[in-house]
From TrEMBL:
GO terms for biological process: C4-dicarboxylate transport. It is a multi-pass membrane protein. The chain crosses the membrane at residues 12-34, 46-64, 85-106, 126-145. GO terms for cellular component: plasma membrane. Part of the tripartite ATP-independent periplasmic (TRAP) transport system. Belongs to the TRAP transporter small permease family. This is TRAP transporter small permease protein.
Length: 164
């Protein structure tokens, strides 16, 4: 088996860091709760935020490696020219949805910044939490576009295992 150099992908590292942080925060909260009958106030707010970051960063990784859920049966039985049309239609659908999320997420983050609204639990500025929605939506669009280019060129990621 040939060895490949490790790849540094910001989205994969971000997802990993978010998952580790969620685990550490939750474990610390459980230990403190059992030892003192009290819990940390910040754990829920940070855990929800980190879960959103984990979800979007993980979606970017999956988009790059062509591992999102879809119906491949249609792709397998189409001629190459029609398969490319399906690839582009899949990409257009994803970019449309994520483009709308980017637009409204940016608008929401800007409003949260302008209104200086604070989070209910810790009183931190809400825009710090909300700004990740449009940023990571753009990251998914970039990864989807990279994947589309590879698929149109006929490249398959060797890490992808298709079980269909």
């Amino acid at each position: 088996m040939p060895s490949r150099p490790p790849k540094f992908r910001l989205d994969a590292w971000l997802a990993t860091i978010a998952l580790v942080a969620i685990c550490l925060i939750s474990l610390g909260n459980v230990i403190v709760r059992y030892a003192t009958d009290a819990s940390f106030a910040f754990t829920e707010e940070f855990s929800v935020f980190l879960l959103v970051v984990l979800t979007f960063a993980g979606a970017a990784v999956a988009a790059r490696h062509n591992q999102h859920i879809r119906i491949e049966l249609i792709e397998h039985y189409l001629p190459p020219w029609a398969r490319k049309v399906v690839f582009v239609l899949q990409w257009l659908g994803g970019v449309t949805v994520l483009g709308i999320m980017t637009w409204y997420g940016s608008t929401f983050a800007l409003q949260e910044y302008q209104w200086e609204s604070l989070s209910p639990g810790l009183g931190l500025p809400n825009w710090i939490y909300v700004m990740w929605l449009p940023l990571l939506s753009v990251a998914i669009i970039i990864r989807m576009t990279q994947n589309l280019v590879d698929r149109l060129r006929g490249k398959e990621d060797p890490e992808v295992i298709h079980e269909s």
